[in-house]
Amino acid sequence: MMDLNDLYREVIVDHNRNPRNFREMADATCTVAGHNPLCGDQLTLYLKLRDGVIDDVSFQGSGCAISVASASLMTEILKGKSQAEAGRLFDKFHALVTDAGDEADPELGKLAVLAGVRQYPSRIKCAVLSWHAMNAALHGDTMASTE
Ligand code: ZN
Fold it and tell me: Separation of 68 CA from ligand 1 center, angstroms?
């Protein structure tokens, strides 16, 4: 029997090896460069917004397994979400990986696999980097840093 932590680890390893939506987007409406100086994670997030809805989202970059897996999982969940829903997910995800979040929240879905990073304060910034980039994009910024 695998315990939940093994399952979570497997999802993270899978998304790190085969990141979803890992590509440039030529017709993106927002592009944000994200940087986590603490770990050296770097990514570029591409968003295509249409009528207030995230029509497409992708990323490129390099970083540790947590940052890549988190970005990959984020792109999967954001497609088709409204800007308001994406903003709410940002808040919920932030709470999930810091301390107050609810792993069982159905809206977070597979993102629950990252709840474990709350035990490793130095990795929290890795997990939230792509989310900060997404939040910056929704606010019209082109740069995001975890500092
Ligand atoms: Zn990292």
Answer: 8
